[in-house]
UniProtKB/TrEMBL annotation:
HAMAP family: TatA_E (MF_00236). The keyword Transmembrane helix applies. It is found in: Cell membrane. The chain crosses the membrane at residues 6-22. This is Sec-independent protein translocase protein TatA. Belongs to the TatA/E family. One of its GO terms (biological process) is protein transport by the Tat complex. It comes from Xylophilus rhododendri.
Amino acid sequence: MGSFSIWHWLIVLLIVVMVFGTKKLKNMGSDLGGAVKGFKDGMKDGSADPASPAVPPSSAHVAHTPAAADKAPIDVETKTRS
C-alpha cells in the first residue's frame, strides 16, 4: 500500500463536495475557523499572569451584610404553633 497520490485526493474532494455541497462546506469551514479562534483566545486568556485578578475590583461582587433583624434568634416552637 503506497501513499495517496494527488489524483486520489482530488477524487475524495470531489465526492465530499458532491455529498455535502459547497454552501454547507463553506459554513462548516467558517464554524471551524471561529472555533479555532475562540480556542486561541481562550488559551491566551488562560496564560495570563496568575497574580492579577480575573475580575477587576470595580465590578467585583460585594457581600451583603445582614440587617440587625436578620441576626435576631428565631423561636422555632412559636412559629410552628401558629
